[in-house]
Amino acid sequence: MGRYTRYSATATVTINVPFSCVYCGFASQLEVTEKATTSRQVGGWGHSQDVAQREWALAHETAHKRGTSIAKDTAKLVPCKQCGKRNEGAVRSHVIFIVVASLVALGISGGLAYGVAAVDSTRPQVWMGIFSLLAFIVAIAIVFGGYTTYRDAPSKARFLDAQPAPAPAYAPALAPAPAPQPAQVLVRGPDGRQYPGVMVARAQGHVQVAFANGSTTWVPETGVTWAPRA
Ligand SMILES: [Zn+2]
User: Fold this and answer.
1) What pLDDT does residue 177 have?
2) 71, 147, 158, 205: least surrounded by Cβ within 10 Å?
């Protein structure tokens, strides 16, 4: 094995994806932030600055792609802000992916074990043991990674829906108004006499007055006299 240099890069990726709950219909924009680290192993030592810059840039590009991919997976697993449910289909796909990836890792390890054991037939048990252990570690890592993606999804995401409007400064006005008391009024008729009535409505400087005979009329507020409460 020759010497090599490892170029590592970490990328923090924030994506915006639409969110729509299949259960309650809540729709919003979801902001998901994920971090990914990748490293490139490049043969040689003491690379020129140009080479190093390029390798770091490539490592960063890969980290960014991976972060974006994880963020997209995370977005699918975020519980609805309104009803709290996670999309069952997305959770199922996530679990299936983890199981399949683990099986693939086990299969590859098994294949390698057989391949190496065939070449070095003197110690097949040793190779089987080594690759079984390797397969076990990789499978555990895959399952644990999948589990943490599921577990941490809520903390990686933020709903960007319109915030509830702040309470208006005139909040007291929103308190239920007291039921209007029927106000006794006196309306001056064309004959100059005052007629008693009851105010039933009031709008735009006018008052609707109901009289004892059942008729109602709109008169300017200035044309009525407010009778003192009995
Ligand atoms: Zn919902």
Assistant:
1) 55
2) 205
| Domain count for the chain | 2
Give the dihedral sign, CA 40/43/48/54: negative
Ligand 1 centroid–CA 168 distance in Å is 28
- pLDDT tens, residue by residue, 6-47: 889 999 999 999 999 999 999 999 999 999 999 988 888 888
Q: What's the angle, vertex CA 85, arms to CA 84 and CA 87, rounded to 5?
A: 145
Q: What distance in angstroms lies between residue 19's CA and the mean position of ligand 1's atoms?
A: 10
How many angstroms does the Cα of residue 27 sit away from the middle of ligand 1?
Answer: 8
On whether both 50 and 151 belong to a single domain, the answer is yes
Section 200-216 average pLDDT: 82
How far does the centroid of ligand 1 lie from the alpha carbon of residue 76, in Å? 13
Look-up: residue for tokens 């109901």? 210
Structure tokens at 171: 């909040």
Token readout for 93 is: 């796909």
CA 2, CA 76: separation in Å to the nearest integer? 43
Judge whether 124 lies within some domain: yes
Question: What single-letter DSSP state applies at residue 148?
Answer: H
Measured in angstroms, how far is the CA atom of residue 84 from the centroid of ligand 1?
6
Domain that holds residue 39: 4-159
Q: Which residue carries 């086990």 as its tokens?
A: 106
The neighbour count for residue 72, using CB atoms within 10 Å, is 14
Separation of 72 CA from ligand 1 center, angstroms? 19
Given a contact cutoff of 8 angstroms between Cβ atoms, the answer to whether 97 and 146 are in contact is yes
C-alpha 70 – ligand 1 centre gap (Å): 22
